[in-house]
Amino acid sequence: MARCLSSSSSTSSHPCSSFNHSNNTKKQISIPKITLLSHYTNPTISHLISKQIHLKSSNGYPLNAVSLQNGSSPGNETVGESSFYSKPEKVEPTISITVVGASGDLAKKKIFPALFALFYEACLPKHFTIFGYARSKMSDEELRNMISRTLTCRIDKRENCGDKMDEFLQRCFYHAGQYTSEEDFLELHRKLKEKEIGRLPNRLFYLSIPPNIFVDVVRCASRRASSESGWTRVIVEKPFGRDSESSGELTRCLKQYLTEDQIFRIDHYLGKELVENLSVLRFSNLVFEPLWSRNCIRNVQLIFSEDFGTEGRGGYFDNYGIIRDIMQNHLLQILALFAMETPVTLEAEDIRNEKVKVLRSMRQLVLDDVIVGQYKGHTKGAKSYPAYIDDPTVPKDSLTPTFAAAALFIDNARWDGVPFLMKAGKALHTKRAEIRVQFRHVPGNLYKRNFGTDLDKATNELVLRVQPDEAIYLKINNKVPGLGMRLDRSDLNLLYKARYTKEIPDAYERLLLDAIEGERRLFIRSDELDAAWKLFTPVLTELEEKKIAPELYPYGSRGPIGAHYLAAKHNVRWGDLSGDDS
Ligand SMILES: NC(=O)C1=CN([C@@H]2O[C@H](COP(=O)(O)OP(=O)(O)OC[C@H]3O[C@@H](n4cnc5c(N)ncnc54)[C@H](OP(=O)(O)O)[C@@H]3O)[C@@H](O)[C@H]2O)C=CC1
Ligand SMILES: O=C1O[C@H](COP(=O)(O)O)[C@@H](O)[C@H](O)[C@H]1O
Questions:
Q1: 338 pLDDT more than 80
Q2: DSSP code string of 274-292
Q3: Cα–Cα distance between 479 and 492 in angstroms, integer?
Q4: Angle between helices 332-339 and 348-360 (to 10 degrees)
Q5: Considering only CA atoms, which residue is closest to atom 3 of ligand 1?
Q6: From CA 576, how far away is CA 547, in angstroms rounded?
Q7: Among residues 140, 136, 132, which one has the least CA distance to residue 111?
Q8: Residue 5 above 60 pLDDT?
Q9: Annotated catalytic, 21?
């Protein structure tokens, strides 16, 4: 896959070299010098212009008649100069990236650092501008200070970082506005245009805002600030609704203003290195794919564990809970990638088609196969840890789960009867995300009596440690060296930091770059989203209607004991997350 652009402004040598895509926005292109009047009413002239554009398009020029056709452009704008029959002129593309909600937590923590890292790595297009948009009053300089203060990205200790940072900050601007005001977005549009003069403008909006204002922003941005002749894309952060109905409604509303192709629903777990590697592991190694079914796999575990609580995000979290926050999206996406059939190609639609098929083959999740928990306060030595309900933004009688475990099944030929166990929790003893594949027993094992330990524990297990310390390891049985025949457990271990010197990019870097490049493979399609909500909505409704009380577990513990009963019911023992098994 082509990654990154060469940027004249970078000094780093990076493998990224080309921006060679099938999408019309990605190469330096030529467009004829014409005036594009979006409101052109004379049918003959309009027809001529359309024909001209069509002819040019089929000869390799961009299909940039959008503003003519959709009539939604903010004004009667021109591209190039008004000389209808003059020779085509090279127009280089530029991209304007607007971070909506620029004053917020995610923007500071992830989006600006990821953009800077892409710039540092020469992965951003040669011509780009970044705009922050939010209600807070800020000058360009104040935004720049905010960005440089909060840049704690993986490269900020590298050579020339300061110089590159200055260069980057000079391309960052701020516009204060309301999220519901078309006027304010029109003002933004004018500012963007000033930076885009003489270039083919492409625009990317990143909605880093609370979900209740997604649609307002999309309405304002699409009506008043979309690109007139290049593309306009919108990255939408989760949550995409809180159940089937609200998610369907959100999709319908967004589609009033955007096509599905313009919507990039982000699930940042899909941008994690190990999750990207899952398909590579499966489909490019003959040793794994033949084992990838009920014939050899006993169970699959998808585990997310954080060693801190909601910490400032209680207000958001209490309306969602851990099932919506982690399971319905991050863990289910991993499951779909893990379990899908071989896609026809690596194209986005082929992969997403296979993921939807898996999701639609899943058995309806039932309450008996779900357990929920909530962390309570805990004192350890001199240190005391708060309960979830100690968060001032959380109601004291909240039943919102901060922990959940669930057993899911895929009713297809490959996975019939194999439990897929999910476990996700906050304020646990460790921070970790893993995919654990436990294999079946070796039938008629000749060495059974040679094991020092119980054979039941001695099946093969493949672990993909998504974070921290990315690793893939396979637990095998091995002869203890020496005379005699005694077997013990050992690991074939691929620890990334031991094998690779290159730092692993943050998931947001990968996903932002993909959105810029128009690569949709790692973004969620609306039918995937629909299938994901169908799976979880009934159980979420039941939990809430029946006011099921979560099992309390101490902050920093391994979570509720109920998770072990659930696993045992399906003949599963959770893998050891203590970290000493790799
Ligand atoms: N933070 C995180 O770690 C993660 C966040 N997300 C998602 O990303 C999005 C942004 O998250 P985050 O940055 O934490 O959100 P914030 O709560 O920090 O909100 C972002 C900005 O939106 C504006 N805002 C906040 N509340 C409201 C409101 N009620 N009405 C109108 N505007 C408001 C504020 O800007 P101003 O007042 O200046 O307009 C704020 O700076 C959300 O959808 C969230 O669910 C997803 C994964 C992780
Ligand atoms: O989406 C979310 O993810 C974070 C965890 O992300 P990670 O990349 O740090 O593992 C989680 O803390 C948050 O609650 C959730 O909304």
A1: yes
A2: HHHHHHHHHHS-TTTGGG-
A3: 14
A4: 100
A5: 106
A6: 31
A7: 132
A8: no
A9: no
- Pinpoint the residues of the chain covered by CATH 3.30.360.10: 270-443+495-504+526-569
> Which ligand is nearest the CA of 112, by number?
1
Distance from Cα 25 to the centre of ligand 2, integer Å: 32
Helix 214-224 to helix 182-196 angle (10° resolution) is 50
Q: Residue 363: how many CB atoms within 10 A of its CB?
A: 12
Yes or no: say if 203 and 98 are a contact pair by the CB < 8 Å rule: yes
CATH for 92-237?
3.40.50.720
Report the half-sphere exposure of 517 (CA within 13 A, side-chain side).
26
Percentage of the chain with pLDDT > 90?
73
CA atoms within 13 A on the CB side of 454: 2
Q: Whose CA is closest to atom 14 on ligand 2?
A: 325
ipTM over 0.95: yes
User: Using an 8 Å Cβ cutoff, are 342 and 280 in contact?
Assistant: no
* Ligand nearest to the Cα of 269, by number: 2
Cα-to-centroid distance, 395 and ligand 1 (Å) = 20
Q: What is the largest CA-CA distance in the chain?
A: 94
Do the bridges between strand 378-380 and strand 383-385 make them parallel or antiparallel, or are there none, so unpaired?
antiparallel
Ligand 1 pocket, mutate which of 209, 220, 326, 511 (most atoms under 8 A from CB)? 209
Cα(191)–Cα(172) distance, integer angstroms: 12
Q: Which residue's entry shows tokens 């909600």?
A: 101
Catalytic one of 330, 429, 441, 570: 330
83-108 tens-digit pLDDT: 445 556 688 999 999 999 999 999 99
**237 ligand 1 Cβ < 6 A:** yes
Token pair recorded at residue 486: 């005694």
Cβ–ligand 1 distance for 103 under 6 Å, the answer yes
96 forms beta bridges with 129, 203
The one-letter amino acid code at 141 reads E
Architecture of the domain spanning 270-443+495-504+526-569: 2-Layer Sandwich (3.30)
Contact 366, 372 (CB under 8 A): no
Range 155-163, long-range pairs (CB < 8 A, 24+ positions): 155/116, 155/117, 155/120, 155/121, 155/503, 158/120, 160/11, 160/12, 161/120
Segments of 223-309 assigned E as strands: 232-236, 263-266, 297-305
DSSP SS3 for 541: helix
Location of structure tokens 């979290």 = 317
